[in-house]
Amino acid sequence: MKAIDSLDWPRIEADLDRDGWALVRQLLDPRECAALADLYGEQARFRSRIRMANHGYGQGEYQYFDYPLPPLVATLRARLYPRLAPLANLWHERLGLEGSFPAEHADFLEHCHAAGQLRPTPLLLRYVEGDYNCLHQDLYGEQVFPLQLAVLLSEPGRDFEGGEFVITEQRPRMQSRVQVVPLGLGDGVLFAVNFRPAQGLRGYHRVRLRHGVSQLRGGRRHTLGVIFHDAL
């Protein structure tokens, strides 16, 4: 894993603030990607399995990790959060939202657990030919950290075809904008869970974002999702 503090944080923060998402190239190396993808078959690692078609979410499936999280996943969660919390607080301030996020992830989890959000939310997703993930937001209770991470654990063009990560932006009184995030093996994308602030003529307003995955045309695709709040 790349050293979190060595990432280009001024560029990442600027991209997140402008677009609601930021690309992090080669966040994980191929060995780490393969090791995480291999965990999918280890049932003891997970608290639940979701088949998307059963809920109208799309096609494919994913599993939520149970505590204790795999060390690499726990490290990503703990080390990324402090770098993202200042931007999260700035977004809340711009939009006039109550509350602020503590500097350390462990302290934020205490807020989640006090609100009854006790279940871990990091997950592994698996898609095969014909699968897709409908546009959605990962909201699991009142305590929501406004940014999250997805890391592609498979190699486009070798392991799968299609299956692009997409983000839509719902702009007030305008048609939605769709962006395709060009992920490669081990690349991560940080993005807004629900909305980002945007400057307008009368101050800041909310621009809502949703994310999903287009249909796979072949192969198999694994993704790691790192959500910083826990679930009810």
Break the fold down into its secondary structure elements and pairings.
Blueprint: H1 9-19, E1 21-24, H2 30-38, E2 46-51, E3 58-59, E4 61-65, H3 71-95, H4 105-114, E5 123-128, E6 132-136, E7 147-152, E8 160-162, E9 165-170, E10 177-181, E11 188-192, E12 195-200, E13 203-213, E14 216-227
Antiparallel strand pairs: 1-11, 2-4, 3-6, 4-5, 5-14, 6-13, 7-11, 7-14, 8-14, 9-10, 9-13, 12-13
Give short descriptive properties of this protein:
single chain; 8-stranded antiparallel beta sheet; alpha+beta; 6-stranded antiparallel beta sheet; globular; 4 helices; 232 residues
Can you put this structure into words, describing what you see?
The chain is α+β, with helices and mostly antiparallel strands. It has helices spanning 9-19, 30-38, 71-95, 105-114, and strands spanning 21-24, 46-51, 58-59, 61-65, 123-128, 132-136, 147-152, 160-162, 165-170, 177-181, 188-192, 195-200, 203-213, 216-227. The strands form 2 sheets. Strands 1, 2, 4, 5, 7, 8, 11 and 14 form an 8-stranded antiparallel sheet that branches. Strands 3, 6, 9, 10, 12 and 13 form a 6-stranded antiparallel sheet that branches. Strand 9 and strand 10 (177-181) form a beta hairpin. The radius of gyration is 17 Å and the shape is globular. 33% of the residues are buried.
Entry summary:
With 232 residues, this protein is of the alpha+beta class. Helices cover 24% and strands 35% of the residues. The strands form two sheets. Strands 1, 2, 4, 5, 7, 8, 11 and 14 form an eight-stranded antiparallel beta sheet that branches.
